[in-house]
Amino acid sequence: MVSILSTSRAPGPSTQPSNSFSIGPLELLNRFRRRIPRHPIRGGIISKFDELFDQAAPLIAAGAHSRDEPPAEGGRWPLSVILPAGTAFLDDLTAEAAELAGPGHWQTGQLGSAHFTVRALEGYRSEVPPGDPACARYLSAIARTAAAPFRMRVTGLTLTPGSVMAAAEPADDVADEFMDRLALELGPDGWFERPYGRRDIWYVNLLHFTGDIPEPRKLIDWVAERRTEELGELRIPAAELVRFQLAGGQRPHMRPVAL
């Protein structure tokens, strides 16, 4: 269970990837990483999220934003190592963003879905059989890192071409050290992300766009008002290995399923 150490609730609305700016097919990931300059996770974190906002806002305003589709085998929404981040304040922000964006978008930041991605390991799999040998190796690598708990500060909102994103930074060195040790422990099993270098920001995607946004200016302004607002701190007891599953209903989303 994730515990909230402190939160400050954003005012109500007048109203980005995971994974959005999250890893999907290798060609999509490669395209994003060519377009967005990389910065150190510390020192450059604010400017990186500002760059994302500046890049995404005109696309969203013009209706040229990215749109997620149900996943295909081997594609976006890969098997991943995540830090679960389900909390009431992220759930509330997700609901507000969804109201502004209009119906049908994936509410990724809701309870039971919100997460920080530490590392993607392979493309989307709709099913993972018991005793899967690759997953056994992934779980062993996670266990050998023995890092916890993770403390993350949510420092504001931003936009990406395909999502509304909560920006974050670690409250200590545990999360960054876990990411680096995991890369070493995975060895050859770290192939999926290795060509693109180390992840350089921490984030939770609240909403993934799946269609049109009827009044994009309202969403853009709502996010802009919260760009640098301290929203809360999370304490996460453990990392998880997950696959993703599309869930429908009134709040559709790609739900992480622990393996």
Task: Give your account of this protein's structure.
The chain has 259 residues and is of the alpha+beta class. Helices cover 30% and strands 25% of the residues. It has helices at residues 26-35, 45-61, 88-101, 133-145, 174-186, 216-225; strands at 3-7, 79-84, 115-122, 150-160, 163-170, 202-208, 232-236, 240-247, 253-258. The longest helix has 17 residues, at 45-61. The radius of gyration is 17 Å and the shape is globular.
Percent helix, as a range, is 25-40%
Residues in β-strands, percent: 15-25%
The radius of gyration computed from the alpha-carbon positions, rounded to a whole number of angstroms, is 17 Å
Q: Mind summarizing the main beta sheet?
A: 5 strands, antiparallel
* Low-pLDDT residue intervals, each spanning 5 or more residues: 3-46
Summed over residues and divided by their number, the pLDDT gives a mean of 86
SSE ordering: EHHEHEHEEHEHEEE
| Alpha plus pi helix count | 6
Task: List how many beta strands DSSP finds.
Answer: 9
